[in-house]
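User: Hi! Is it possible to get a structure for several chains at once, not just one? Here's what I have:
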Amino acid sequence: MFKLHLLLFYEFCKIGTFALGGGYATLPFLYFLQSQYSWFTIDELTNMIAVSNITPGPIGINMATYTGFTTAGITGSIVATSALVCVPFFMTIAITKLFTKFQENKYVEDIFNGLRPAACALLASIGLKLLFQSIKPSTIDYDALILFLVMFIPFMFTKKNPLLAIIVGAIGGIIIKSI
Amino acid sequence: MKNTSLWEIFKIFFVIGLQLLGGGYVIVPLLKKYIVDERQWLKEEELVDFYAMSQCIPGIIACNIATCAGYKTRGISGALMALLGVVAPAFFIIVALANALTTITDNEIIKNAFFGIRIAVIVLVLMTIKDLWAKSVNSIFSYTLFFIILICLLVLPVSPTIVIISAGAISLLYKKIIGGKNV
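Assistant: Yes, the chains can be modeled jointly so their relative placement is included. Here is the combined structure:
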């Protein structure tokens, strides 16, 4: 029991320290957790992301709380959430103090030139894996494919609106499964 | 500014946390309204700086900006209160919903809704990639790094932590070797 919490703390500390680019950047880490520990299934994880998108609060926090809760109950969610925020909290304070120095530092700039494309590639690999898994679990799932194309094309050319996307997805899912 | 009470800081950030819907970026206009316009805890330029800075710090962007703003207002305890305030609504709402969610997904209609929602999540992830790509992949070096990492990740189960650490190291080494030329 206690060991599980320790493990949760360690894993979420790692996520907080290395997830660059906000809430969605924690996704690759969560999928990696899933493949390592099977605390939850891929479908559950995707449901978690959906719920996080339609509830108030930073998405990363929602996901950590939810993951912690499904893994080890309420204490698990406290551990996961506090682990996620603790390292960035101290980094933020340190950097706020040294703000100008930090931004002008050439090494910091050089490192970030590599970190940004890496964070983007991490998310891209998850996006592609999720897409293939839902469209082609074993044979092609036409329901999923049609729904994806119907949403993908208009949404790709508009501003990101998570709430609208989730609502359209829910209605689309109910309609396409009842035809 | 030092006389702002910690409770006041917590309260304001709690209210902001409640209104955060759809990702960390939404916090900027909320902070402008509550902290810059209504309370003058920060100047608008500071907010813009904090936003830029928060994106360079790992972790959740909204939490990092809240920490910055709280720190500027009342030091380290202000930072802690701001962070707790912004996290609390998300935490309690999810804990309250978590139990219900595991049981309602047995319902057939809700199951179908979630089938569609999962596809919507994929679309949202792809849109986030598009945004990140526009901001970060813009040179020969970053294109190369992006595709090498992406191919590695699709073939091998590499830990994201390892990917981030090695990308930082490679980028630093690369700049050392080419000696500051812009490629």
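The helical segments of chain B are 6-19, 27-37, 44-56, 61-104, 108-136, 140-155, 160-178. Chain B touches chain A through 97 residues (CB under 8 Å).

User: Great, thank you!
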